[in-house]
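Quick start: what a row looks like.
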Amino acid sequence: MNPTMDGEAPMTFEGRTLSPQKEMVRKFYKDMWDHADVSLIPEIFHADFTFRGSLGPVLVGHSQFADYVRWVTGCLENYTSDIFVMMEEGAQVSAKLRFHGIHRQPMFGLAPSGRHVWWNGAPIFTFEGGLVRDLWVLGDVYGLINRIEDNMLAAPEFRTVA
């Protein structure tokens, strides 16, 4: 499956000038997550920042978050974040993303499937003094689990009456 969202292409950043906050979000996804480079965490986050991730955990601080990054990128080979759009309002940046990789380690109690799996996410970054103070991410975990289980052909419970 092509990792684009409904034919939507991810943003490209070459030749694009971003605000400092949007650049920090780009760095977070494209430099830190896509390369599992946890050494960048102190450059992005306050030491006691809070994180509520799309896959469930609520974490505080660099160490807990680094463990989470290592877990996700260990479970999903070639983990990649596709940024589709970023919006900025004051001290906050939100975005529309797709996260994906090859399922190589157990996740949610499910054995490695070897499938290319993905989920969509919508983060809200709150900045203070140039660093992220809080990150809240809503993600389509149900879609990810269905892709791991190869259950995407199941009929949806909701149907329109047309």
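That is the whole record. Helices lie at 20-33, 41-44, 62-75, 141-148. Confidence is low (pLDDT under 50) at residues 1-5.
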